[in-house]
Amino acid sequence: MAGDSAHKLISGFAEVHASFKVEDVIEQADYLYGSGETEKLYRLLVQHKHSDDAELLWRLARSSRDLAQLSSTSAEEKKQLTYDSLEYAKKALEKNESNSAAHKWYGICLSDVGDYEGIKTKIGNAIIIKEHFQRAIELNPKDATTIHLIGIWCYSFAEMPWYQRKIAATLFATPPTSTFQEALRYFHMAEEADPNFYSKNLLFLGKTYLKLNNKKMALLWLSKAKEYPAQTEEDKQVQKEALELLNSI
């Protein structure tokens, strides 16, 4: 117990005691992230929101976003955290333009903010988002998650409803478009970079093959998604959707 209260004192002084080592904070942050300690991680990193370190700042962007996604977070807090996370990611990029993770989280956070800004802004931001994802994989070609996100980008433009296409056509001389074939290519690239890394990539391989009327391959990938060991809430949702799609084929 004495150790615990001492720890509380120390974390209280972190703000005042400026000679902390960035590496130590990052090491502690990565440990908390790996343990799923979302609130503790945010409390640790938000003390350093005025930092000049891109590695700290993109982690703070991710952490703010993770906190926003929790079901216990109110709608008002969620909105505030969503906008905060974009600010932190933007600051991370300003501090280090060649940081792959800063590009990735800037793209993710910009996409999140679009949910509050309406369809015009969302489509308008889409090209910027894709550019940041592509820059992230230029800097880190093995980043399977970002490759997957480009796949999601392609998939959502491939299945965009006609009324949204009309909006896109008014915003751009050449509006962003994509195909299910292009989406498929990215989902396979992600799988090659890091096999079986993410239940959602397996699900989207299945969904994309369904869109392309290849039932045999759709069955293969949807079965993999259904059998993926669920660790997160998202994994459970993926299993549920994969099962529903398998039953409908």
Automatic annotation (TrEMBL):
Q: Which GO terms describe its cellular component?
A: mitochondrion; mitotic spindle pole; spindle microtubule
**What keywords is this UniProt entry annotated with?**
Cytoplasm, Cytoskeleton, Repeat, TPR repeat
Single GO MF descriptor:
microtubule binding
Q: Transmembrane segments in this chain: where?
A: none
Q: Which domain of life is it from?
A: Eukaryota
Protein's cellular compartments: Cytoplasm, Cytoskeleton
Assembly and binders: Interacts with microtubules.
What's this protein's family per the entry? Belongs to the RMDN family.
Record's protein name:
Regulator of microtubule dynamics protein 1
